[in-house]
Amino acid sequence: MLEAMRQRQLGSDGLVTSALGMGCMGLSQGYGPADDNESIRAIRRAAELGVTMFDTAMSYGQGHNERLIGRALAGLPWRVQVATKFGIVRDAAGVHLDGRPEHVRGYCEASLARLGVDVIDLYYLHRPDPQVPIADTVGAMAQLVTEGKVRHLGVSEVTPAQLGQAAAVHPISAIQFEWSLLWRDPEDDIIPAARRVGTGIVPYSPLGRGMLTATLTQDDIDASDFRRGDPRFQGGELDQNVAAAAVELTEADLRGLDDAVPRAGWAGDRRSFAAAATSRRPGPAPTAPSRGTAEPGQRG
After folding, report:
1. Which of 39, 132, 201, 284 is most deeply packed, by most CB within 10 A?
2. Which of 8-12, 148-152, 210-214 has the highest mean pLDDT?
3. Which of 60, 107, 123, 204 is catalytic?
4. Is 123 a known active-site residue?
């Protein structure tokens, strides 16, 4: 590792990682074509800049993303962490959810093989299966911790009630959900719920799927599987992203952001496969979260 980065503790069971993580979905799907060699260079450059958590899923490119990350991280002279997810299945029948307890071990072992590692640092339920109580799925995930195949557990895009049910079975180190200036509804419900149960927060798409970078064009949207169908989008940044970990926002900065992108001025709902909620909820904007409590942000 060439540079140090601030660290964050996620949850209450000992997971410590870099303040910013790297979400790797876009290296296999969602935002247009990608080159594997360039992707590997980007992953290794992020590691050089102090990123220690790399986020993937079995569904990203139907396993391609896990294999890519395994290749990229295999030759590093220092240890980094990998988070991966199960629960979204892409196969010949299309895309569906599977959180059945009897399938959890098989999904985990397949991810371990693709990543080329013995242990997964953070294992997420990518989306809860509406046909399976989340406590049953997490119970099977907890067995993987007992067996030493997984170090920490996470969930993604769950409701506050589902988070509570999951945490009652096993400590949940991290919860992922979309959170940016374009989507602040989590501040109303899931963030307070995570604070109550001691779960770390890992926002994804913190740059609004590219909208907040001032570089997005209509051609980019048209070429993107994720952005093309998202109502909010109708009508060489790696080093800069990592540098954001050193930025401290003052109260005046936070007020300026609220003024620039007021919640009352938003337009368009959210599209995210099997997300807990995709429509904006009415009501007064909550107070901004206090500084010094943010956890690693993922890009996808």
Report:
1. 201
2. 148-152
3. 60
4. no
